[in-house]
Design goal:
The chain is mostly beta strands. It has helices spanning 98-104, 177-182, 274-280, and strands at residues 10-11, 13-18, 54-59, 65-69, 74-79, 84-92, 111-116, 122-126, 132-137, 163-175, 188-191, 197-201, 206-210, 218-220, 222-227, 234-240, 246-251, 259-263.
């Protein structure tokens, strides 16, 4: 059974706090490299140098990074070696439904977290009003959903042609009642070393492990959840060490004590979800 009530939630402990020389940490990912890069010097990028509203970052196996911009809703794939934007992708929600209206509202909430899927698709977390997970891909492509181990594999290159693209919403998953109570908003997404999808909630100060997302959309369900405890800042970025320990980036508005390593490990390869625990009962 998922531990989803406040009395039974695991509480994570701070193991280490470090300084990141950034005024705001809105998203984090792990990528091996020695040098820092300034996106203000990117060639071919459409990000404004001031207030680009970048809310999330992830990396593929080729060492390229994907940056998610909230307004306007789009992503850019960046080659860090050449400091060049390889591809620019507008994220569009078509139709006249509630999601399309909130997505197109200039004052509305859009993408706050993103993970790379196979077949060149993206999974984006919409923060609030309403909170949801949205799969984006090329027009006329089909939703793949996401099962455990089904995201872009380690070392795999994310397939995309160079240039300008438009992706459309292929499927949407709204939180079920339990997940909505556990995570008041969706602040970041990450795939753990165990292949599961994890969600960070700023308002609830919680990390949640999610169940598989069925193709064509539906509901997103909670498998397990952990409380972050008292942190000096807003938790807005999530990553994992190779051992499965969570790393949380904090928006402190100061370039200090804004990256926190927590324990115990949540996403270990030997860790199994609710279904496997049920089989052993």
């Amino acid at each position: 059974m998922a531990r989803n009530d406040k009395s039974n939630k695991n509480r994570l402990r701070v193991r280490r706090v470090v300084d990141v020389p950034l005024r705001e940490v809105s998203g984090i990912c792990l990528r091996r490299g020695r040098n820092k890069r300034s996106i203000a010097k990117l060639s071919g990028s459409e990000f404004p140098k001031h207030d680009p509203q970048i809310e999330a970052v992830c990396a593929d196996g080729a060492g390229r990074i994907l940056l998610l911009q909230e307004t306007p809703p789009r992503v850019e794939l960046i080659d860090l070696e050449s400091l060049r934007a390889v591809a620019s992708i507008d994220l569009v929600v078509e139709g006249r439904g509630e999601m399309a209206q909130t997505w197109s509202d200039p004052k509305g909430s859009r993408g706050e977290g993103v993970v790379l899927l196979r077949d060149g698709h993206l999974l984006v977390a919409k923060e609030k009003k309403p909170a949801a997970l949205i799969e984006f891909g090329p027009p006329n492509s089909r939703s793949r959903g996401l099962v455990r181990g089904g995201a872009l594999a380690n070392g795999e290159r994310w397939p995309i042609k160079k240039g300008r693209h438009q992706f459309v919403a292929l499927a949407t998953w709204y939180p079920d009642e339990t997940l909505a109570k556990t995570c008041a908003d969706f602040s970041d997404l990450e795939i753990g070393p165990d292949g599961c999808l994890y969600l960070l909630s700023d308002k609830s100060s919680t990390i949640a492990r999610l169940d598989d997302l069925p193709a064509t959309g539906g509901t997103a369900a909670l498998l397990d959840a952990w409380r972050l405890g008292d942190l000096d800042g807003k938790p807005e970025g999530l990553a994992f060490t190779a051992q499965g320990r969570p790393i949380v980036g904090l928006d402190t508005r100061k370039a200090r004590r804004n990256l926190v390593l927590l324990e115990p490990a949540l996403a270990q390869l030997r860790g199994r979800g609710r279904r496997d625990r049920a089989r052993r009962v």
